[in-house]
């Protein structure tokens, strides 16, 4: 069974939590794309839901699949968000943003009563940080922002190289919000909650990819089947 099959299995299990009439946050990335496609099949079979996409890519996928969409300006709360993850630790703290949609993903996730993270088992880690931490920043004053980030890293006991993300065309990657992303290669983040707090108060940081206490459930697909982990 290949990685894509595992991702689809995780998406299919998460779909079991969806009920008629739900307002859903629709995640971004390769695993979330499977969820959107499977949800579209259910919608075409008569399921009545409405979704808020976390990126323009997901918006296009959802529209192609026939899923009704709305915005957080039109509704005040979501029942459930289903999204992928780049890393998940045993407390269900998560690193997200490898696809560049972390800001909208966090806005949607925190506007939801519940978040299910779907992933293949390779995303499960003992300690976050092996995957580079994405930090969405404004281009203005980037060097000053990076100096402040380095100070935040030091105060939380981590350090590592910071790299401005480039797109496939070699130019700086620009998010849906018009921002840049700095990927911080930190290795191990012993106190992710502390680092999240320190990064959040830096003026040039728009958002960071540490989702602390946001996910309520993780659905992990592996060679031995599906494992569901609930946040304690």
Task: Tell me the total number of β-strands.
Answer: 13
Spatial order of strands in the largest sheet: 2-1-3-6-12-13
Residue fraction in strands: 15-25%
Report the biggest beta sheet as strand number plus sense, adding barrel if it closes: 6 strands, mixed
Low-confidence stretches: none
Report the order of strands and helices: HEHEHEEEHEEHEEHEEEE
Q: Averaged pLDDT, please?
A: 96
Helix fraction by DSSP (H/I, runs of at least 4): 25-40%
Shape: globular
Query: Would you tell me the structural class of the helices and strands?
Result: alpha/beta
Based on CA atoms alone, the radius of gyration comes out at: 17 Å
Straight-line distance between termini:
31 Å
Please work out how many helical segments DSSP would assign: 6
List keywords for this structure.
232 residues, alpha/beta, six-stranded mixed β-sheet, four-stranded antiparallel β-sheet, 6 helices, 13 strands
Give a structural overview.
The protein is α/β, with parallel strands linked by helices and 232 residues long. It is built from six helices and 13 strands. The chain has helices at residues 3-15, 30-44, 56-64, 102-110, 142-155, 192-200; strands spanning 23-26, 50-53, 80-83, 87-88, 94-95, 115-120, 133-137, 161-164, 180-185, 205-208, 210-211, 217-222, 225-230. The strands form three sheets. It has a six-stranded mixed β-sheet, with helices on both faces. Helix 1 crosses helix 2. The radius of gyration is 17 Å and the shape is globular.
């Amino acid at each position: 069974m290949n990685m894509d099959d595992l991702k689809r299995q995780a998406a299919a299990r998460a779909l079991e939590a969806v009920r008629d009439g739900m307002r859903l946050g629709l995640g971004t990335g390769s695993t979330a794309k499977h969820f959107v496609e499977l949800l579209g099949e259910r919608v075409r079979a008569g399921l009545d839901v409405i979704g808020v996409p976390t990126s323009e890519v997901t918006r296009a996928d959802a529209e192609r699949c026939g899923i009704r969409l709305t915005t957080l300006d039109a509704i005040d709360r979501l029942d459930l968000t289903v999204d992928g993850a780049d890393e998940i630790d045993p407390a269900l703290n998560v690193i997200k943003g490898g696809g560049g949609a972390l800001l909208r993903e966090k806005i949607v996730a925190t506007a939801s009563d519940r978040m299910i993270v779907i992933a293949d088992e390779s995303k499960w880690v003992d300690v976050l940080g092996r995957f580079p931490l994405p930090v969405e920043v404004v281009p203005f004053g980037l060097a000053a922002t990076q100096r402040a980030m380095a100070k935040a890293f030091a105060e939380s006991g981590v350090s590592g190289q910071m790299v401005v993300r480039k797109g496939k065309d070699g130019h700086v990657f620009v998010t849906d919000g018009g921002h840049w992303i700095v990927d911080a290669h930190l290795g191990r983040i012993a106190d992710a909650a502390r680092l999240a707090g320190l990064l959040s108060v830096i003026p040039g940081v728009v958002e960071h990819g540490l989702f602390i206490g946001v996910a309520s459930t993780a659905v992990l697909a592996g060679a031995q089947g599906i494992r569901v982990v609930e946040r304690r």
